[in-house]
Design goal:
There is one protein chain. By secondary structure, the chain is mainly β. The chain is built from one helix and 15 strands; from the N terminus they run H-E-E-E-E-E-E-E-E-E-E-E-E-E-E-E. It is 6% helix and 50% strand. The longest helix has 8 residues.
Length: 127
Amino acid sequence: MALRKKIKTMRVDTLVGKHSRIVGDILYTGGVHIEGEVEGNLMAEEVDKGFVVVSETGLVKGEIRGPTVIVYGIVNGDVYATGTLELAASARITGNVYYNLLEMTTGAEVNGNLIHQQSPRNQIGKG
């Protein structure tokens, strides 16, 4: 699968391990890989930098906000991807999804609304 190749080339700065559970918000820069459980929001410090990967064993109970979001696991909350949102076949999202670019594999589930929004960079000069 193309998504797996992309993940291997991305630099992960923060890892929530398979047997870990974090309660609270995470403000991140760089790459975040969630294999365990996060009960809180994940928010990028910079609008155009960083990424979040929720693996097959990952569970996020809260919002995810960032430029690149890749989901293999479960997200119970809204997702805001100002750049690219990639949903693998095993992805399960319960919440609204706000995206600029969307790549969705057959089998992925979104139980909420899909809302297209242009990247803030693409809106400059429009009005």
